[in-house]
Amino acid sequence: MDEIWKDVVGYEGVYQVSNFGNVRSLDRYVKCSNKPNTKRLSNGKILTKQKNKNGYLSVYFSIKNKGQHKKIHRLVCEAFHEKEVGKTIVNHIDGNKENNIASNLEWCTSKENIAHAIENGLFPLGEDARDSILTSSEVLEIRSNNILSYNELSEKYGVSISTITDIKNFRSWKWLGGEQLPDYSSIDNDKLIQQIKEAKKNSGLSANEFAKTMGVSRSAIHRWETGRRLPSHKFLLKLSEIYGIEIT
């Protein structure tokens, strides 16, 4: 197979990239740094490849005394593969980050890229990751626990509240599955407040007794009734289970 060269997108006439994953500069005239009104010929050459901390190969571009590192796999894919709508990630088909020939690269979504990495065992996930604190079973416990608050889960499992939030909302450990949190974004707040008032009234309990059934203070119930603060996910479920309040 012959080596084919194409202009680097955005650097036409200055740099080119090949289907073999090589990058070169082209002959061009540049200003002399010590003589601004004078130009000299800069001979084109094959650029030296450098490996970054993540294992990707890059080259260094220099235009008008301004430099920038460019990842080779993106340069190749942009030149030899038409970008598809919604696909902005470059995937190495064989999993080798240093194999940047055009036939080994493809455009994909972030989700497809992660799925490919998992399928081919390209990086450790979950409890196999070196810095993982939680096990897969613990993540599933967190995801399905609708009784404890995020603070309580954080203390129980020794992780931050943001970690609990990411797990609950499937921003981390996505591949593991588990119980997805219901979407409460469309709740009618005014309707919810009215239902809480009616539930309290129909229960026949005093304010203190009603608060006790919910496991909160009397002042918390008052804040719910006045709309100053709405119940968290945990207490929405409790209101639904005990008093039949509609939350969806």
Describe the overall structure.
- The model is unreliable at 123-131 (pLDDT under 50).
- This protein is 35% helix and 17% strand.
- The longest helix is centred in the last third of the chain and has 15 residues, at 189-203.
- It has 248 residues and is of the alpha+beta class.
- Helix 4 crosses helix 5 (161-168).
- It is elongated, with a radius of gyration of 29 Å.
- Strands 1-2-3 form a three-stranded antiparallel beta sheet, covered by helices on one side.
- It contains nine helices and ten strands.
Low-pLDDT residue spans:
123-131
Share of residues in helices: 25-40%
Tell me the number of helical segments per DSSP (H or I, 4 or more residues long).
9
Task: Count every beta strand, where a strand is a DSSP E run of 2 or more residues.
Answer: 10
Instruction: Kindly provide the radius of gyration, computed on alpha-carbon positions and rounded to a whole number of angstroms.
Output: 29 Å
Instruction: Report the biggest beta sheet as strand number plus sense, adding barrel if it closes.
Output: 3 strands, antiparallel
Give the spatial strand order of the biggest sheet.
1-2-3
Order of helices and strands: EEEEEEEEHEEHHHHHHHH
β content, as a range?
15-25%
Outline: elongated
Alpha carbon gap, first and last residue: 60 Å
Structural class: alpha+beta
Query: Average pLDDT, to the nearest integer?
Result: 81
